[in-house]
Amino acid sequence: MAISLTQSAADRVKSYLEKRGSGLGLRLGVKKTGCSGFAYVINYADTVEENDTVFEDRGVKVVVDADSLPLIDGTEVDFIKQGLNEAFKFRNPRSKGECGCGESFNV
After folding, report:
1. Which tops the pLDDT comparison, 94 or 45?
2. Which of 3, 11, 28, 64 has the fewest Cβ atoms within 10 angstroms?
């Protein structure tokens, strides 16, 4: 089981944490929503809960809750800049499809 980061994503997370002045790393999860069933939830990780799994890649800790891990195991997180737009992107090998807007996925 693993969650990985591209160098671009790791740099962005480190930058956010530095500006914020606190935090253990990145918290990644999913919630039921959207037209395809699940949406990614990304936030700062300030604590590690009992049922969390912690991965470390490129010097960044990634914290994932036990319910989300089976849906996103193997995912690579990237950070993309295109013109004025910038966003985290997810390459999830468990995803069977995404909605047209790219905001949700199904497994």
Report:
1. 45
2. 11
Residue 105 has pLDDT above 70, yes or no: no
Distance (Å) of CA 88 to CA 11, 76, 102:
12, 10, 11
Three-state secondary structure call for residue 31 = strand
Domain boundaries, position 62: 4-96
Residue 9 counted as domain residue: yes
Looking at the 3D structure of the chain, how many domains does it have?
Answer: 1
- When pLDDT is averaged across residues 32-48 and rounded to a whole number, the result is 84
d(CA 103, CA 40): 8
**Paired tokens of 72:** 């996103």
Distance CA 48, CA 22 (A): 14
Looking only at the bridges linking them, the beta strands covering 60-64 and 25-33 are parallel
